[in-house]
Amino acid sequence: MLHIINKSPLEKNSLDTCLAVAQDGGIILLIEDAVYAATSGNAAAAKLSAAQGRLKICVLGPDLEARGMADRLLEGVTRIDYGGFVDLAAEHKCQSWL
Amino acid sequence: MLHIINKSPLEKNSLDTCLAVAQDGGIILLIEDAVYAATSGNAAAAKLSAAQGRLKICVLGPDLEARGMADRLLEGVTRIDYGGFVDLAAEHKCQSWL
Amino acid sequence: MKFGILVNEGPYQHQASDSAYLFCKAALEKGHEIHRVFFYHDGVNNSTRLTEPPQDDRNIVKRWTKLAEEHKLDLVVCVAAALRRGIVDDNLAPGFRISGLGQLVETGIEADRTVTFGD
Amino acid sequence: MKFGILVNEGPYQHQASDSAYLFCKAALEKGHEIHRVFFYHDGVNNSTRLTEPPQDDRNIVKRWTKLAEEHKLDLVVCVAAALRRGIVDDNLAPGFRISGLGQLVETGIEADRTVTFGD
Amino acid sequence: MAGTIKKFMFVNRKAPYGTVYALESLEVVLISAAFDQDVSLAFLDDGVYQLKKGQQTKGIETKNFSPTYRALDGYDIEKLYVEQEAMEARGLTEEDLLVDVTVLSRREMGALMEEQDVVLSF
Amino acid sequence: MAGTIKKFMFVNRKAPYGTVYALESLEVVLISAAFDQDVSLAFLDDGVYQLKKGQQTKGIETKNFSPTYRALDGYDIEKLYVEQEAMEARGLTEEDLLVDVTVLSRREMGALMEEQDVVLSF
Fold first, then answer.
1. In this prediction, does ipTM exceed 0.90?
2. Is the whole-model pTM more than 0.95?
3. In 3D, which of D100, D79, D85 has the Cα closest to residue D10?
4. Rounded CA gap, C75 and C64, in Å?
5. Please, are residues F120 and F97 in contact by the beta-carbon 8 Å criterion?
6. Class assignment of domain C2-117?
7. Is C116 at the interface with chain D, CB within 8 A?
8. Is B13 on the interface with A (CB under 8 A)?
9. Top-level class of domain E7-121
10. Could you name the CATH architecture of B2-97?
11. Which of E14, E43, E60, E95 would best serve as a mutation to test chain B binding (most B beta carbons within 10 A)?
């Protein structure tokens, strides 16, 4: 399952709930304001790092760049573009955590 | 200062930030989805109770009733109607935590 | 006392417009004055005369129009936000007018209190 | 692969419509099919032909229209949500059509994947 | 594709009245009943508040749509799942809810989501 | 009321681009400069991200409005306050920001807010 998150982890609870619900082997894709979760120094980064064993974490590059955070991507997080987003959505069933 | 909060404390961070920033003697008014914060059993209720010494906590009754939570208002929280909201806003400078 | 009101969200999607309306109504009942209601961001969508909500629910736009008529309220829609969202003079409900952002700052200056309703 | 897309928020206020547009564009470039883009909630506000955003910013509505023309996309606006918000046939931008909520369920059935963009 | 039956899950994570999502989500659910699909509703986080008994909306001059949850039954929509942790964090029990539900832990909810063909969130 | 000078504070708590609030808040700030008021900007929580250097919006095909913060100076808007705890929780330092700011603790920010006549949040 591809879990799509679009909100900042310090503003809303969607990443927290998703991490608690998502089954092992799933993929978390951070888009829009959720990309901040995957940046070093963010208070939520540890949660993501802890989940990296059982979930794959991806981030949408264009959203990361728009926010000026491209140079501080958390280690182990995969950066993709919109084409990569489409590939992930084609390979997996999708769920948006709105 | 009258601090107006309108989001559920378990969904968004506005109550948390407001409680950390608000100066002693201020008033917190919970409206819309924020009224859940002042209901017994809510995980955020303890934070409100802890703030009650230095801040006055009010809740908008019509919003509490709409959500079916009128019978579980936290002790020490003052329930007001729209007229009471107007009175508070007339007596104090206002800030909405959006 | 003179209140200024700021509404940042459109009708139905968020409760902001409902809360602002009920606040204004209560303030007027208590004899206060509403200096202006300023609609900004998606709040501009409260001004379209084209909404047709279900019969069994409130009509948010018409309620504003009625309150404006009864109390000569100044309902101002921000022109910049309106252009972005397709709100134009031709489709404006009675009681609303489109004007500049300066009217919001002016409200902040002239009103005794400014109360904001948003997301 | 056949994608269905759901857009729950209006233009500019939230990034949802932008993200959905860029996703559709990328999917089409990769040779996928877009079964339908369904606009629900405030998403219906993406369909008004009356928006005039500043010259130096993107025109969200026109982009959808252009993409629909180039790829024969089916852009469907929910009628119930549209009535609540004042979106009517007269003001619809080219490429959009108003129809029932059943079209969203149908998309869920017919598309291989449904991807939702919202607040 | 006539005759296709897919598993649809409607995920609700937002409180009623503060935003329109709960109401408009319910409108989709009712329409979906006409398509003979396998429909489930999931209530997580503040979404569980949608099912709270005793909603009285007169004071906010808004339509009370909560009785509709009781009517779902008549549309053969009977799979309502509620997140256990969400109930606990809000001091709610099954007795507080308008309708009969199945209470699932977050982990169980996640497993159920994996089985779905279409997950719609509003 | 001609000649009245009030203390205006614009409070920003939201990240840029995910929503329009940061951009449209900035538009009000620029207009307010014409009214000769005492204007402050406060950046709390995710609002501090609005001031992050290096924003490149080409990939999302949206206007990059962050250079406007550098122009505020020219409008005599020079009181920019940033929440210290927000910076720390996001791994940001003053060097990461586009403009010179005054860093305040939450408590100090609260005291400053008390001094304002009009607090506008978007």
1. yes
2. yes
3. D85
4. 8
5. no
6. alpha beta
7. no
8. yes
9. alpha beta
10. 3-Layer(aba) Sandwich (3.40)
11. E60
